[in-house]
Amino acid sequence: MPILTMDKVCFSYDGGRPVLQDLSYTFERGKIYAVVGRSGAGKTTLLSLLSALTRPTSGQILFENRDIREIDPYRYRSRYVGVVFQSFNLLPNLTAAENVELSMDIAGDKRSAKDKRRRAMDLLEKVELDEDRGNRRVLKLSGGEQQRVAIARALSCDPAVLLADEPTGNLDGETQDAVMEILRRLAVEEDKCIIVVTHS
Questions:
Q1: What would the mean pLDDT of 157-162 be, rounded to a whole number?
Q2: Is the model's pLDDT at 72 over the cut of 90?
Q3: What is the rounded CA–CA span in Å between residue 192 and residue 3?
Q4: How far apart are CA 134 and CA 1, in angstroms?
Q5: For helices 96-106 and 143-154, what crossing angle results, to 10°?
Q6: CB contact set of 21 (below 8 Å; sequence gap of 6+)
């Protein structure tokens, strides 16, 4: 059964020329999808639509057969869909673990501080960052390590869908491969739907 479905989705900015037109597609759990296209083709717009940051001009997007317009957008993004931004959007003066914990706090996670710390460290380990790096301030981490923190943060509320906008765009070839392998593993081993926008 599909986790996300696009049904004849169209989008245009302020009634202008369509950026996306009549897109229909189904996304399933346990798979990783790549959205590839030239700059300006609408890749990031598509992620904005799937994450409910933007609404379609026409057509609908369904999450588990429910129109996402019927779901509170804050709840949708904090519980069901995790987003990894191209620029990471981490707080550089916080540690890696604190960035993940902050995401839990914002989502209203009721766990104790100790349990949140344990969860944050578990997630960082899942993306191959050890406790030492988890306790470092983000500005002391490499670009690849920061990207892994961003993935861990997006996973903090155990979303069914992970959307990643150019997650390897600023990384060297070896680090790109490592990050993509983490995403592949999340799809296969944790039954998540991973949708990656990339130009490569």
A1: 94
A2: yes
A3: 9
A4: 36
A5: 30
A6: 10
Starting from the edge strand earliest in sequence, which strands make up the sheet with 161-165, in order? 32-36, 193-198, 161-165, 81-84
Q: Which single residue is written with the structure tokens 């990050």? A: 179
Task: Find out whether 149 and 92 touch, Cβ atoms under 8 Å.
Answer: no
Torsion from C-alpha of 47, 51, 54, 57, nearest 10 degrees: 80
Whole-prediction pTM: 0.90
Question: Residue with structure tokens 């070839």?
Answer: 173
Structural element, H or E, at residue 68? none
Alpha helix positions (H), the chain: 43-50, 73-75, 96-106, 113-126, 131-134, 143-154, 173-190
Rg (CA), the chain: 17
- Is residue 57's pLDDT more than 80? yes
pLDDT of residue 56: 95
